[in-house]
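Regression test case RT-17, inverse folding.

Input:
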């Protein structure tokens, strides 16, 4: 797992980029493409996305090439509603990257729940470039929530790409953790990567622990600064922006709040369900 970043001044000053292309991934998700480079970015890290005159929020980079990168945003609150109304040619500020990254390894298994496919998309491309063998399990509530499926289907063999939905509208009708256990019955991977709802990731962590498999999970918490100043994203004695967002099983062993509780914007510690219910408003 990549070590956390330092406090270089250049990382704290937004670089202005013009949106040159927008892809509508679903009724609620858009990918905004920019020409330029996010230097030193590694899959799993995040950036701070600033809409001038409005606000700034953390997002993952969902696509990256030598001269182009993309950020996928789901409309679900005031900031993301403002972002969903951005047009080609609009200018935004981006600073980063921040945080830790995934460790690319051969013979791996990826578990993506809902929007968790966003930070995992660059990892998928990295593993493909390295000619590593891996299987992707992707799940969501329904077919609408399965993002990038046409693109990923062209990258992976059918047996290496397994889809499930809660309502059975696409793929198998089950949870991603059920498919994870089925995959483990066939082959033991060197590592499991997972991003999605924390309840799902907690279950992935438990399954990996029972099977003595290394795992790396990406946690999500409220962030205001992105580089360890505000302390908003604390999880036990860890800061998700600095010590994460990618944590391995050894770190998670000592994080008792993982899968149980989180902090709201006002600093109140609440059960994880209340945190997600509040975030969805």
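Golden output:
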């Amino acid at each position: 797992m990549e070590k956390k970043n330092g406090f270089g001044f250049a990382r704290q000053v937004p670089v202005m980029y013009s949106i040159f292309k927008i892809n509508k991934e679903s009724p609620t998700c858009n990918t905004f493409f920019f020409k330029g480079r996010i230097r030193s970015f590694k899959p799993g890290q995040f950036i701070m996305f600033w809409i001038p005159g409005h606000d700034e929020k953390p997002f993952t980079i969902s696509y990256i090439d030598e001269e182009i990168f993309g950020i996928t945003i789901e409309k679900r609150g005031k900031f993301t509603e403002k972002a969903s109304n951005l047009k080609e040619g609009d200018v935004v500020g981006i600073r980063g990257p921040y945080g830790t990254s995934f460790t690319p390894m051969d013979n791996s298994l990826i578990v993506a729940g809902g929007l968790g496919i966003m930070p995992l998309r660059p990892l998928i491309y990295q593993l493909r470039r390295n000619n590593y063998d891996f299987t992707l399990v992707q799940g969501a509530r329904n077919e609408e929530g399965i993002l990038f499926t046409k693109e990923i289907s062209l990258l992976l063999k059918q047996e290496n790409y397994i889809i499930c939905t809660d309502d059975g509208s696409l793929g198998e009708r089950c949870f991603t953790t059920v498919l994870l256990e089925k995959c483990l019955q066939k082959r033991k991977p060197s590592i499991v990567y997972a991003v999605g709802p924390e309840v799902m990731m907690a279950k992935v962590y438990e399954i990996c622990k029972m099977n003595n498999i290394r795992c790396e999970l990406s946690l999500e918490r409220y962030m205001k600064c992105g580089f360890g100043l505000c302390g908003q994203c604390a999880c036990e004695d860890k800061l998700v922006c600095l010590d994460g967002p990618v944590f391995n099983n050894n770190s998670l062993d000592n994080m008792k709040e993982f899968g149980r509780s989180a902090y709201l914007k006002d600093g109140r510690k609440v059960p994880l369900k209340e945190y997600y219910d509040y975030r969805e408003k």
